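# step 3/5: fold
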Amino acid sequence: MEYIVETKGLSKSYKGKQVVRDVDLKVPKGCVYGFMGPNGAGKSTTLKMLLGLIRADSGEAVIAGNRMNRKNRLQILRCTGSLIESPSYYGHLTGRENLEIVRSLKQAPEKEVDQVLKLVRMERQQNKRAREYSLGMKQRLGLAAALIGRPELLILDEPTNGLDPSGIQEIRELICELPKRMGITVLVSSHLLSEMDQMADYVGIINHGQLIFQDKLDALHEHSKNKLLLRVMNRTTALKVLENRGVESRATEEGILIPGLPDDHAAALAAELAAGGAGLYRMEERQKSLEDIFLSLTGRRASL
């Protein structure tokens, strides 16, 4: 597999506190990679190191085949677009004028301004002064600026922050379109698990500065395999029946949890529990949500 971003042992400390510790990111080309973690987990610091905005204390980062250092930084920036924290713009200029400045700096073709305006659906607002834009329109302007020059990699830090539901939906749809329509790899950070579930192909989870999970989104969902909750009148008897059948079980306050079973096996087990005097009166299917999985991986109920 070919990676557009690959880091090894990337680390950063501030005032003696290590905020990013030995992070090994692997972002495949042509995907949406969701970089998740609680607020303060080290997401923004990691992304800034990838862009050379801050220098890593140790480790290395390779972006589009180029090692991040002073010599290669400008070359890396030419093949990347980014929206970190709040978008930058000149409030007294129109959206189009702001984009023309970015186009000139990147030495991109003139036609690209029209292309990115259409892509982020800003054609009707392009001649309005940027300071008059809503928060959602400012985010779109920042995204349009990041797309000028047709970057290989787009890095977005919490791009839906502060947006209303319709704005979030529009930004989400745009991010999902970019790999397919333009071949752009998107590395997007968020603490909103529901967002990643609807956008990402791959995910990495960072907590306390350490990368604790990295794989396809489907692999993350493997952690949410169905379980059955058995509600019985006689737990001791029920546990004995399950033990005799070789069924893994765990008693909880609600009842007894067992792995999910095919319907015919579940029916046979229910009959055996009834015949054995366990007093089975309910069998419920349980599945972890993505947030439950996240919490089980991070081991904390952080601000999400």
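# step 4/5: annotate
The chain has eleven helices and 15 strands.
# step 5/5: archive (pending)
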